[in-house]
Design goal:
This protein is 44% helix and 13% strand. It has 348 residues and is α/β, with parallel strands linked by helices.
């Protein structure tokens, strides 16, 4: 049986340089409660890479990025899925496992990017570009997924676009991911919602149609951040998430999904890294690589991911909250889009 002491010792070994000792002792007590409740409820806990370190390294059965956790949700055999992430991720789990109870530990764990577009917005774009396939980033809500042809993640966006084999694609809703994907696939991009109506001609040969959504974390990183880091630490390797601006991605040494960045640090021998993404992930990578230094020069915490705590995770299991439901007609249509995304990556 896992005890508070054994959990504390595990966290201490991993997080001694990251989390204060008194906090580790407190978190270990809560983690023991969660592991007991997880057993009683026949639950599986999925945690995104952006979770706080004490949670990330104590109670999840699986950790990873959106794509990896989507796979785990689809294959879950337990009765209950506790998703330590944000609402659109928990909705994706429900889309893939409709017979399971899906719990989101924090009721207000939303997403600025997911909130940037609605199902009605997608329907209007489809009417504007009839017959053009729609790729929707997985960082969207279920009703938006239901309006698209296929979903993608930051790790497979280019592969998804190229899999369609069409000259023109609508790519929603992240402006920067769309621009970075356009560059990677050699397509030129427009944003019709920013054009005056008299200048817009839907008959022109646009190859990628984008939207104006942005992640409130990744849009804050700048080229100046990178230049400042390199002035002080000339040997630093800079890693940027594809939700950062194309200028930031271009100035970085590497750009990839959260899981890809984790693997990059593991596989490279540099002493210093600057991780341009949600700052809790920098702490988690630092804990996994004690011989390497993660610079804290650009750390920005996602207020939505920050809603999820060990205490909330315990209470979710204890009080069966907050239950995620997706209307069946929406779920069925969204399921096709998400399933196609998973199948694309399975072929790689």
């Amino acid at each position: 049986m896992t005890t508070t002491t054994s959990i504390y010792e595990k966290l201490k070994a991993k997080l001694d340089r990251v989390v204060p000792d008194f906090e580790l002792r407190h978190k270990a007590e809560i983690a023991e409660e969660i592991l007991r409740l997880k057993e009683e409820r026949n639950a599986v806990i999925l945690a995104h890479n952006y979770m706080e370190p004490a949670l990330f390294y104590s109670v999840p059965d699986y950790v990873g990025d959106s794509l990896e956790l989507s796979r785990k949700a689809a294959a879950a055999e337990q009765d209950v899925i506790v998703f330590c992430g944000v609402r659109f991720m928990a909705e994706t789990a429900k889309i893939l496992s409709p017979d399971k109870t899906v719990l989101l530990p924090a009721e207000r764990a939303g997403c600025s990017l997911a909130a940037s577009i609605t199902a009605e917005d997608v329907r209007k774009l489809k009417a504007q570009f009839p017959g053009v396939p729609v790729v929707t980033y997985v960082n969207t809500y279920a009703d938006v997924k239901a309006e698209c042809d296929i979903c993608c993640t930051s790790s497979n966006a280019a592969a998804v676009v190229e899999s369609l084999g069409t000259d023109t694609v609508i790519f929603l809703p992240d402006e920067y991911l769309a621009k970075n994907t356009a560059k990677e696939t050699g397509k030129h991009i427009i944003f019709p919602t920013r054009m005056p109506p008299e200048q817009f001609d839907a008959s022109l040969d646009y190859q990628l149609v984008g939207w104006h959504g942005r992640c409130e974390v990744h849009e804050q990183f700048t080229v100046e951040d990178i230049e400042n880091a390199r002035r002080q630490f000339p040997d630093v390797l800079v890693l940027a998430h594809p939700e950062c601006s194309p200028e930031v991605v271009e100035a970085s040494d590497y750009s990839g999904s959260t899981t890809a960045m984790v693997q990059y640090v593991k596989q490279h021998k540099a002493d210093k890294y600057l991780i341009l993404t949600e700052c809790a992930m920098g702490d988690n990578i630092a804990a996994e690589n004690p011989d390497k230094e993660m610079l804290r020069m650009c750390s920005i915490r996602c207020p939505h991911m920050n809603e999820i705590t060990l205490e909330d995770t315990r209470d979710a299991l204890l009080h069966n909250r907050y239950v995620i439901d997706v209307p069946e007609d929406v779920r069925e249509r969204a399921f096709r889009s998400v399933k196609r995304m998973i199948e694309i990556n399975a072929k790689d």
